[in-house]
Amino acid sequence: EDKVVQSPLSLVVHEGDTVTLNCSYEVTNFRSLLWYKQEKKAPTFLFMLTSSGIEKKSGRLSSILDKKELFSILNITATQTGDSAVYLCAVILTGGGNKLTFGTGTQLKVEL
Amino acid sequence: DGGITQSPKYLFRKEGQNVTLSCEQNLNHDAMYWYRQDPGQGLRLIYYSQIVNDFQKGDIAEGYSVSREKKESFPLTVTSAQKNPTAFYLCASSSDRGPGGYQPQHFGDGTRLSIL
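ok -> C-alpha cells follow
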C-alpha cells in the first residue's frame, strides 16, 4: 500500500524561527512530490519536486527531494504569523491518471 | 479569472438523503478530482476523471457517485449509503499538458457537509 508520512503532526514556533517539515514516502512507481499550503479552504501549490538534490526556492520557503532515502523537507526561514497553516505533502505515481496520495499534513502555528 | 468554483460552501444532509456537491472549472483542464478531508487527516481521493464521459474510483468511492458530462463540470453525489458523510470535500483539476506532462492540481474552496 502506498504511504506518505509527514512529521511532526503539529508545531508551534515564534516569529523569526526557522522550521523544517518532513515528508517520507513508500510508494511504487514514484513520479513527483508536491507541497501544498492549506490555510482555511483550498490548498495552494508551493513546490513540485521530481529530481533528487535540486533545491527549489520561493522567497523564505525552500524544498528538496532525496529519492534514494525517499523523503523531502520543506524549510521556512524567518517565519511570520502568515505562515500559520497546514502544510500538505503529496506524491504522484506514474500511470493512473496523475492521482495524488497525500500525507496527513503538518499543522504549523507561528506565534508573536 | 480562471478557477474552480465549488458550491455550496456549507451543506446539511438529513439521514437517508442524497445530496449533490457542485464543482465547475474554467481552466480548460481535462482532469478533475474529488477529495474528502477529515479533521487531522490528509486528503483522500474519492473519484477522478481524466476525460469527459469517463471516471474512475479512488480510494474511498463507496457511498459516492459522480458524472462527467461536460469538461467544465464534475458533480459529486453523496448517497444515503455513505454512513459517515460529515467532512470537508475538495474538488481539484489539472492539465497533463506542459513540461513533464503534468501540471499541479488546482483546488476549489471546498464544501463542508454536515449531518442533521
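The mean pLDDT of chain B is 91.
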